[in-house]
Amino acid sequence: MMGRIESVFEKKGKTAFIGFTVAGDPDKETSVRIAKALVDGGTDILEFGVPFSDPVADGPTIQRADDRALAAGTTPDTIFEIVREVRAYSQVPIVFLTYYNTIYRRGIDTFYREAHEAGVDGILVADMPVEESGEVVAVAQKYGIDPIFLVTQTTSPERMDSIVRHARGYLYLVAVLGVTGARKEVAPEALALLRRVRPHTKLPLAIGFGISTPGHAKTCRDAGADGVIVGSAIVSIVEKNLRDPAAMENELRAYVAEMKTATGI
User: Fold this and answer.
1) With 0-12 CB in 10 A as exposed, 13-18 as middle and 19+ as buried, what is 259?
2) Cα gap 234→97, rounded to integer Å
3) Does 47 participate in catalysis according to the annotation?
4) What is the three-class DSSP state of 108?
C-alpha cells in the first residue's frame, strides 16, 4: 500500500510544500494550533523539528524556537502527544527532523515504535552519517517509517549513492553551505545540486535551507524540484506573534496558501 509521503509525490507536475515547525514551540497547545494552521493553509507534508539543546544544523531562528520549546518542558512524550493530536485532525504526512542523541536516549526501537504508533511517516536524523545509519534504517523499515537523508553540495558521488540506497520518502537537498535561515535568493549552487542528484535516484528531491518566499518556491519548481521545505520563515511568523496566537494562525494559513500558489498546486 502506498504510504502517505509517497502519495504526495504521485501528483505529477506539482511541487510539494513541506512546512516545518518546532514541536512544542512555544508550548504544547500553541504548537498543535500552529500545526493545524499549516495543514489548513495547504501544507503537503508537515515537518516537526524535535527540540534539542545543541541543534548544530539550525540557525538562530530555529535555535530560539528549540529554546522556547525546551523551556516549556517539551519532552519526547510531549512531541508524541502533539503528533497524535494532529493525526486525529488530518492525514497529512508527518516527518520528524531530529538529532541522534534524542533517539539514542529513548532507545532506537522504542523511539521508532512510538513514532509509528503516533502516526509519524518519516524521520530525518540531521547528525547521523549514512555510514553509521544501518541499525536506525533497519528499525525505521521495521515500523514502516521512511528514513530521510540530507544531501549537500559537498556530498561526493560515492556517498550520494550510499545515501540513495538507504533513503526512502524523499531526499532533502541542502540549498546552502551553513545552517538554516532565510536568504534573499535561491543559491545557483542549490539548483546545480538538484541537477547533480537527479541522475542518481528516482526518489523525490526537496530543496530546503534558505527557502522563504513565493519567488524562491517558483524558482525551485521551475528547476524541477519535487518539493520545497520552509522552516525559518514559518518559525519567524510564530516568533512575531507569540502574544497573539489567533493572528499567528491567520498569518500562517495565508503564508502557506501563498507559497502553495507559487509551487503550482
Assistant:
1) buried
2) 15
3) yes
4) helix
Spell out the per-residue pLDDT of the chain, length 265, in tens.
789 999 999 876 689 999 999 999 999 999 999 999 999 999 999 999 999 988 777 788 999 999 999 999 999 999 999 999 999 999 999 999 999 999 999 999 999 999 999 999 999 999 999 999 999 999 999 999 999 999 998 899 899 999 999 999 999 998 776 555 555 677 788 889 999 999 999 999 999 988 889 999 999 999 999 999 999 999 999 999 999 999 999 999 999 999 998 887 5
pTM: 0.94
- Which of 25, 27, 44, 58 is catalytic? The answer is 58
The residue annotated as part of the active site, out of 25, 27, 44, 47, is: 47
Q: Measured between alpha carbons, how far is 142 from 159 in angstroms, rounded to an integer? A: 24
Distance separating alpha carbons of residues 61 and 235, to the nearest angstrom: 7
Burial of 113 (0-12, 13-18, 19+ CB in 10 A): middle
Strands 122-125 and 146-151: parallel
Residue 170 CB contacts under 8 Å (≥ 6 apart), including other chains: 5, 9, 122, 146, 148, 203, 204, 205, 206, 226, 227
Non-local (6+) Cβ contacts of 83 within 8 A are 23, 48, 94, 115, 118, 119, 120
